[in-house]
Amino acid sequence: MRVRLPEDPEGVWGTVREHLLDRYAGAIGAGRVEDMLASGRFVGTDGPVGGDEPYAVGRYLWFHRDFPAETPVPFPIGVVHRDERFIVADKPHFLSTMPRGRHVTETATARLRRDLGLPSLQPAHRLDRLTAGLVLFVVREEDRGAYQTLFRDRVVRKEYEAVAPYDPAVGLPVTVRSRIEKERGVMAAREVPGEPNSESRIALVERRGGLGLYRLVPETGRTHQLRVHMNALGLPILHDPLYPVVRADGPEDFARPLQLLARTLEFTDPFTGVAMRFESRSALSGLGPRGGAA
Fold first, then answer.
1. Do the beta carbons of residue 200 and residue 178 sit within 8 Å?
2. Half-sphere exposure of residue 260: CA atoms within 13 angstroms, side-chain side
């Protein structure tokens, strides 16, 4: 966290300690602020900051926030490709791409930064926490914009796999177009009347009993798009906690991951002009081994 010491028109902060207590004591307690000062947790450009140092408007301080314990995600991150510009990671189910909300240390970004010794590593795009598969990370900050632009301009081809019920009445392959909206604070997205803002191509790859393996190709990138479209077809993805019914919040069931996998990632590298194609080494478990539903 970076803190800028603000203007002090009433002159009430004579020292750094007085400002930090005024600013943070209500949130974490005065004792915690004092402990952080005593242990050198607040730092400036020249090192740890003492509480008795004079208050200086515009000065920057930094500190690391304390986070509550997070439930470890018991699956490793694979690395499909690594070079001096980018990394393609094979993210497991249940692991957020980047820090957000209650997921901070148990995220792909935090783990890869730590495990690979790359503190500046940043994702070029986001993959839903419950979805497994390929995510592109940029090693150097100055290269990030070029790779993000590929995703913004929709010139990256992404292909997914999903396990869902098989229904012979659903004509496949099919292209689904609809308008999807996601309200802040509401877990599930929904389809509404209006101009379509999402498009997905869906095909059946394999059938095993009452389940099918599907290939999903999104042409747009709305929140939960593939999950919404599969549900709209009457083929909700196996173990989906939101579609068609939002399940009650509770502990993660790591034995029942959402059966959705970002299988392939294709793009032309913006620096070399070389066509790149990567494939996930993960596999969905929903169809079970050697046939038969799990």
1. no
2. 28
Cα–Cα distance list, 149 to 121, 243, 274 (Å): 17, 31, 16
pLDDT of amino acid 289: 61
Task: Give the pLDDT band of residue 271 (cuts 50, 70, 90).
Answer: very high
Predicted model pTM: 0.80
Q: Could you name the CATH architecture of 78-279?
A: 2-Layer Sandwich (3.30)
Structure tokens, 237: 């993805």
- Which of 67-76, 166-175, 248-257 has the highest average model confidence (pLDDT)? 166-175
Spell out the long-range contacts of 1-7 with Cβ–Cβ below 8 A and sequence spacing 24 or more: 1/62, 1/63, 1/64, 1/65, 2/60, 2/61, 2/62, 3/60, 3/61, 3/62, 3/63, 4/58, 4/59, 4/60, 5/55, 5/56, 5/57, 5/58, 5/59, 5/60, 5/61, 6/57, 7/57
pLDDT of residue 27: 81
Break the chain into its structural domains and give their ranges: 2-62, 78-279
